[in-house]
Design goal:
Archaeosine Trna-guanine Transglycosylase, Chain: A, domain 4; 5-stranded mixed β-barrel; 5 helices; Lon N-terminal domain-containing protein; 22% strand; 6 strands; alpha+beta
Amino acid sequence: MRPGPGSLGPFDPGFADLPKDLPIFPLTNALLLPGGRLPLNIFEKRYLAMVRAALLRPDRLIGMVQPMEPGADKVLPADVGAADYRPPVHDIGCAGRIVSFEETPDGRYQIVLSGLIRFRIAEELPSDRQGFRRVVPDWTSFSHDMAEHEFQLADRPRFLSVVQEYLKTRQARLDWKGIEEVADDDLVIAMAQMSPLEPEEKQSLLECADLDAVAEMMTAMFEVHSATDGEHRLH
């Protein structure tokens, strides 16, 4: 899925150097794709510990996954402690490397993850003693995420038109100034990650074979939503 030549940075691990275990961050509606960037505001104690642990690793990787039940990451059952709460998650996620880190005066971490490669959860390990979850990732199905290749939208004007209509029906704003200068790969990744799609729809985009499939599926989703929202406004 990785677009464009020279996409792997000098600090990115090679495929053979990917870790055998990975901390995961379950977060509803948070989509990270290979080649994308995801800013995160970390404040919960166990995830502050997760970030500190990731920063000590050579790869600095964190696995982003979505709970099977949207919102399960935000609702803690009354009879379960935070350290013991492990809601089921989708088995496919995306590993991102911490490329930016900042502490805040009120005790939060503001980080940015750079999407590197997707993974399938082969096994969930016991939680770290500080409460964050860890898995054994299977990278083998997604080695192509780290391969370099050119990507070009089949019909960029149509894609932009569909995006514009979808965002208008959702009353979402996008700064279109300079959008013509944005490369096709960056455009598709940004729209997938930033758009107000449902969690299951974003999971479907994550599981697409490549960026061409992401663009095709996202276009279809946008068209369906635009038509449905338009019908609702007529009634």
